[in-house]
Amino acid sequence: MKAALLVAAMGLALSACSDHPQTMHGFQHHDAAPYTGPQKAFTDAGWKVGDKASWEEHMKARTQRGQNDYYGRKN
Amino acid sequence: MARMKFVCDAERCIECNGCVTACKNEHEIPWGVNRRRVVTLNDGVPGEKSISVACMHCSDAPCMAVCPVDCFYRTDEGVVLHDKDVCIGCGYCSYACPFGAPQFPAQGSFGVRGKMDKCTFCAGGPEEHGSEAEFEKYGRNRLSEGKLPACAEMCSTKALIAGDGDVVADIFRNRVVMRGKGAEVWGWGTAYGSKQAGQPTPGTK
Prior knowledge:
Chain A is built from two helices and no strands. Chain A is mainly alpha-helical. Chain B has a single domain (4-179), classed as Alpha-Beta Plaits. Chain B is 27% helix and 13% strand. Chain B has helices at residues 18-27, 62-66, 92-96, 108-111, 132-138, 150-154, 165-179, 188-192, and strands spanning 4-8, 37-41, 49-53, 72-74, 80-82, 160-164. In chain B, the strands form three sheets. In chain B, strands 1-6 form a two-stranded antiparallel ribbon. A two-stranded antiparallel ribbon of chain B has the order 2-3. The relative contact order of chain B is 0.19. At the A-B interface, helix 2 of A face strand 6 and helix 7 of B.
């Protein structure tokens, strides 16, 4: 009886020493697409929130208007 | 849409650090951290050149390759972002990055636990767009507001251009063709037109 209890106690004590396999699967990053918008007042006007094509066109237009100083100029 | 890219025109950058200031202000970056900085070659020597440098959002990013906990991810727009909840602050990415983009703040909400911080192309992080949590960890998410990175939009000489890679390349190519070279680039004629100061406009008395 004592021996059985001793074995059970040792088994319980040593169970903490077991090492479970830790496989690296990579983390799942859940980042929403930017065209889904922040739904707040800072959103620039001129595009439809949630519409990818509208967002892309808006970004291209903003790049041209804001950063191309030859924009609209006839060569 | 192509990948989002930065280009800095060394012929135009005047080392004003407006981009650095815009970035720090937009994202409330703490002291000691520079997501963007201006590097000058041959400083003080006639003909010195300056360029504004930050994360270049590499298509084959070495930081992503070396990260032991896989905290980096790339958005559909080609912006390289990372998850600060996963980052362990080991610093491998800073050794791998050829631009010195990864920063390791030691204080403030950005870095109480030594998480890596870098330019996000003003695209925030994995938190909800425009949320307080996103701002605290990654700064402002201008892309989701339909805006471009603050550094480029603030650039006074339009040296720093950001946006869709195809559009950016087109702007830069056109600029190089239009501005010519040598004496054509600078001077009165370039700044104010070919008419010289004090001379009457042709056709007027």
